[in-house]
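To illustrate the input format used throughout this study, we show a single complete record. The first block contains the structure-token representation of the backbone; no residue identities are included at this stage. The design step must infer an amino acid for every position from geometry alone.
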């Protein structure tokens, strides 16, 4: 989950910034492709996708991280693109005049300004990835690499149900989310109320 979130935030923020700032026909077409991909449901492409990933030997942990980054980036780029529009282009120009490269402009000026939307993207994708069951059940086939929701599924058989292990798994599932909320609650509340007070 952590690796996927980090790459989604980094890749999507950089891509959205470049797509918004270039504002050419090619960048608009690329943005349209990303937005259009959000209309395609995972269920409609899951079987051919898993078949392709299997032929590429990208199942289990590497494959699921790669797919989470791919599926999460489209909506993240859409959110970032809308937010980047509110950042004046004069900041980019001033950084360029001061001798900053594109990377330095993004790292030291643009990315810190993207903090509210980055937290929103991180929250949405954390909840989705942490609770996802369908994709891990198709991709992960090694017992030692199962996610917690997927592992809990195996506690319930046709004839026996291991309630003690299932309840322990529920606690393990909830604890990371509570820790994440504890450290991010100030930013979550700020992101929710940022547009309500004028």
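Output of the design step:
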């Amino acid at each position: 989950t952590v690796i996927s979130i980090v790459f989604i935030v980094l890749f999507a923020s950089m891509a959205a910034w470049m797509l918004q700032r270039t504002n050419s026909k090619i960048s608009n077409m690329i943005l349209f492709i990303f937005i259009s991909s959000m209309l395609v449901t995972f269920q409609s492409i899951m079987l051919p996708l898993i078949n392709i990933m299997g032929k590429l030997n990208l199942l289990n942990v590497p494959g699921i991280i790669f797919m989470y980054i791919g599926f999460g980036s489209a909506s993240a780029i859409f959110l970032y693109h809308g937010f980047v529009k509110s950042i004046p282009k004069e900041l980019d120009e001033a950084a360029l005049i001061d001798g900053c490269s594109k990377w330095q402009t993004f790292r030291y000026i643009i990315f810190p300004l993207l903090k509210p939307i980055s937290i929103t993207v991180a929250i949405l994708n954390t909840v989705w990835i942490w609770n996802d069951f369908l994709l891990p059940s198709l991709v992960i086939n090694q017992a030692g690499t199962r996610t917690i929701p997927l592992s809990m599924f195996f506690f319930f058989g046709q004839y026996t149900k291991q309630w003690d292990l299932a309840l322990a798994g529920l606690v393990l599932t909830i604890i990371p989310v509570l820790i994440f909320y504890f450290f991010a609650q100030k930013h979550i509340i700020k992101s929710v109320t940022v547009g309500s007070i004028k």
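Structural context for interpreting the output: The chain is about 80% helix and 0% strand. The mean pLDDT is 85.
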